Amino acid sequence: GENVEQHPSTLSVQEGDSAVIKCTYSDSASNYFPWYKQELGKGPQLIIDIRSNVGEKKDQRIAVTLNKTAKHFSLHITETQPEDSAVYFCAASMGGTYKYIFGTGTRLKVLA
Amino acid sequence: NAGVTQTPKFQVLKTGQSMTLQCAQDMNHEYMSWYRQDPGMGLRLIHYSVGAGITDQGEVPNGYNVSRSTTEDFPLRLLSAAPSQTSVYFCASSYSAEKGNTIYFGEGSWLTVV
To answer: N or C: which end of chain B has fewer CB within 10 A?
Structure first.
């Protein structure tokens, strides 16, 4: 079946450094790729998304890139801060359906 | 602005018991869904609904039942709880059943089956 692979599963960075999380999807019909941040004890919250007709999108310290040919997309966080520590999930829409497939999550720790 | 509200937040059940997780949204969203979150497995879709009176199965539907009698509510029923259903459950909703609309999640319901 269709799936989304997410790497790494854990990531530790020093405050101020950049963090990169990568996802690969299998459904060539996927056309919407959101990223969610989940803090401890909370539900996931959308932080940025990208559609298949765009290669890159930026929102302050957060950016997402998409390579449709290679079927992968990445989340980039620059100038990381302790409050960026959380679990991050990528997701891809399943073509022709109303469903999304989620990656397995990346636990990001920003060390002060 | 309540958004997506789930109750209860925490629940302990004995094997074989039944219960209902409640979910309500006040954003007039068409699309609602239930996910379970287990360590190392991300979010897996249990059931979803594209509108009142319409439901369909997701990736892991066995042991769960849903109904959608109103736009606002989408309860998830565990028919006969099993330890394998110990998980965190999230209800979610979005404006349209079309793919590519932002999904809003509730705060989660922590369920333990002993």
So the answer is: N
